[in-house]
Design goal:
Blueprint lengths: L13 H4 L33 E6 L3 H18 L2 E6 L4 H10 L6 E4 L2 H10 L7 H10 L2 H6 L1 E2 L2 E2 L1 E8 L2 E4 L1 H7 L7 H14 L12 H16 L1 H8 L8 H14 L8 H7 L4 H7 L6 E3 L4 H7 L9 E4 L10 E9 L6 H9 L1 H10 L17 H11 L6 E2 L7 H4 L5 H11 L4 H14 L1
Parallel strand pairs: 1-2, 1-3, 10-11
Antiparallel strand pairs: 3-10, 4-5, 6-10, 7-8, 7-9
Amino acid sequence: MPEHTSNAPSPRRPWRTRGLAAAALGGLLAATACSPGTGPTGEAGDLDGVTLTVAAKWTGAEQKNFEEVLAAFERDTGATVNYEATGEDTGAYLGPKIEAGEPPDIAALPQPGLVREYAEQGALKPLTGEAATALEDNYTDYWRDLGSVDGEPYGVLLKAAHKSIIWYRPDAFDDAGVTPPDTWDELVGTTAATLSDAGITPFAMCGASGWTLTDWFENAYLSEAGPENYDKLAEHEIPWTDDTVVRTLTKLDEVWGDDDMMKGGRKGAVQTDFPSCVSDVYGQKAAAMVFEGDFVGASAAEAGATVGGDAVAFPFPAVGDEAPVVVGGDIAVAMTDDEGVRELMAYLASPEAQTTWAGLGGYLSANSEVPADAYADEFTRGLSETILAAGDDVRYDLSDQVPSRFGATEGRGMWSILQDLLRGTTDPEAAAEALEKAASES
């Protein structure tokens, strides 16, 4: 894991003083450590005795790094912040707690659909004070809208994700004599095939974590069918039995349907979760590639790899005319108005907290005030610039836009149906029919 040190002077405190000035791009490769600032009276320790709870889906290195960010808030304010891991199905975890009147103080929601659902239930507190100011000052309209419902701001995109990259081991590519591909046909027919012929398993899959399979589909579909059809499918304005969907599922089956393409074959692929698949590549070195977002960097570092060195990535290859760019993220929302919640929300929304996390690795921010040199490596810095400069063809994770019971629920909907395709108990045409049925029922 990248070291996170600083010999900089005492930082300004943006969660109290409206933000740092934007740093110029292309700064030094350095990680900067910051303390979160003072409490509401301007003196540290004014939240002594206050206990807060934050719930999120992060585990492993992601959880560890986030807890380090929270620890800075604890040191500065005297508060105690407890972390609760929700598991992959955030809605299933939070639903009973909301019904019981015992929600966490703050939750990181992985789907904008959940923000709307909970806001309409009255389960969220609108952003106010410094958190609302940080959202207005430091985020573009695109990112602000993700956490808003009918124009009312409820959440801040705490952690962005660039989901259109495939990570690989350069040594494996060198051994097989291959280079990163530009197109899907090159990925399957040249890169993966040559690796396999050289006795190197091309992919480690993360099929037990169904959300990773939806990311495969979204990237392939955006490139194959184009942004307009992507939007229509997200709104269910075209059926999931449309030819564009079947073509995309057929493309995926070129990898998913070949045991030699994946560590452990189909059976092993659907039994391996995230981040175990990352360890398969960078720890066990049992495969050459793993597909997932920029956050793979944290798990790769935990496995002993150096991001930008022996852990690098190439853009998801073009299936159609253009390579896709799919983004995701986790939106921090307040679920109570207890003492200390407003202060913690303001801190999490600040460039200071996010600069700290950026220096720890495996993280991207959509906050325009996080300086480029906060990122611990040049590779991640480049990804951050892509996120901030998102163009008209960039699309947000489709499975996070549809109802969560269809797009983001373990054991049903997209997760379950794509797992069936991966394990070989269905085919592309039947999977498309199952997806349409599930979407219509959601």
